[in-house]
Specification:
The complex is a heterodimer of chains A (280) and B (335). Chain A is mostly helical and 280 residues long. Helix content of chain A is 76%, strand content 0%. The longest helix of chain A has 36 residues, at 244-279. Chain A starts with 14 loop residues before the first helix and ends with a helix. The chains are: A mainly alpha (280), B alpha/beta (335).
Chain lengths: 280, 335
Amino acid sequence: MNPRPAKRHNVLPGFGLSLGYTLFYLCLIVLIPLSAAFIRTASLSWEQFWGIVSTPRVVASYQLTFGASLIGAGINAVFGLIVAWVLVRYSFPGKRLLDAMVDLPFALPTAVAGIALTGLYAQNGWIGALLAPYGIKVAFTQLGIIVALTFIGLPFVVRTVQPVIEDLERELEEAAASLGATRWQTFMNVILPVILPALLTGFALALARAIGEYGSVVFIAGNIPMQTEITPLLIITKLEQYDYVGATALAVVMLVISFCMLLVINLLQWWANRRAGRES
Amino acid sequence: MTLKSIRTLFAATALSLAALAPGLHAQTTLLNVSYDVAREYYKDYNPVFAAYWKKKTGETVTINQSHAGSTPQARAVADGLEADVVTMNQATDVQMLADRKLVVADWDKRFPNGAAPNYSTMIFLVRKGNPKGIKDWNDLVKPGVQVVIPNPKTAGNGRYTYLAAWGYALKKNNGSEVQAREFAKALFKNVPVLDTGGRGATTTFAQRNIGDALVTFENEVYLIQKELGADKVEIVYPSVSIRADNPVAVVERTVEKKKSRKQAQAYLEYLWSPEAQEIAARYYYRPAVASVAKKYASQFKPVGLFTVDEVFGGWEKANKAHFVDGGSFDQIYQK
């Protein structure tokens, strides 16, 4: 029988101090502002709160915000993965330039993105004019919102997946191929399990960003109630009428839904991590 | 850096600060927190006031401007932005500050004309040649006509437009609320895009080429026409419209703290001087002072103007009936 292993020591000292610091920092930056929102809504009775957050117009905006964000993040997960793959695995002239361009949606003020996209996709814009003969309208429809949310979410997926692809061992792919696996099997059984956790992280980040997006969407959305009105706009609308409590009530609902979604994604990620760990 | 050189630096700094100090004494800085499109007007007015004040008192006054949507600006002041004066485009925003005791309760009696040195009204801008034949409000509700109006819930000019259309419908239908409601509904059925601000609506109409008509402030309409050229758009005056006063007020909290009451009061009072009134007129704001208004009469077409107080019994009532959640505007979009 082995002797009991000695108490494990961390390489770096000061666990207690750093944990304390982490908690303090999270409280200061995240928890306190968020709890302020909850406290403000506490002045409402449950019926009042429910009355504010469940009107048809508000419910339509939740569906749009979360639906469009999910679609946008989904598109980014697929195409962001391809972009990351191409940037890592192939070399071609202008690759560095392309790589730098991926970050642009990060840096661009969102209002600029919104105005530029609206200019492109409006009926008289470059792309909008091409689509118009086919009866496809992008600007001032729900489709336009998805375009904007896809645009702002792209870097999140690419930048989280890229390092993982760089670390992939090509030998594994070659081994799979020499053992007779088809390309599809190699992708599904060898590559995907390894990059899935990172892909989920990227998806979650893109989703979170899209849910909170305001600046670019209001320009391209058209903002018609019941059709193209996102929840952040309704929050601003309430603030414009000095309805602070109503605005925070909506914010609380968004926070709770976002938190639940992110929690589910984190659990999925944890599961994917364990599975990848067990298989390798 | 040696200790000695640090000491020298400190001494030098202290000396130069001391040298600056008397200059600082005779100088006052005022912050004018204002709405979005008044930027150019106040940029012209500020040096005029500074020169007048220098001549009168020998004191140098520097004026800083801050511009954004009228309501967010009022909210910023309520939350602590140190404005000496507020110059807004709707009474509601000043009233909110009065409710919070940042502005005196009877602010609209502290200056002439209900504390509004100038005003505007809502008129139409249409495409060249007016292909849809838009002459008055009832042409905007016809099927097939597209009208660009900013969201009344977020933009002051959206709110004025809504009330103007409502007031027109009341006049046409002997004061029938039911008819007015139908009219507003038909009007907003023709609105393809509800921008959050006045400038956004301008962009939608002018740059995106959306809509047959844009309804916005008279001063904004002339600005757009100047920008786009008279060969692209035409200005249409409806038979009646609403009077949109631009109220001003001194912010008590700040002037108490900064001891700048005298200057702030003078800054606003001087808005009624012929000089300031003429600057306003040059930017297509209708001057409140009759003599200047007369001089520029040819520039401003006569329109039958009604006020929010006359037709709606004041802003508070108008907001309650139309713009709060579940008000008449929300009902338009509810099935």
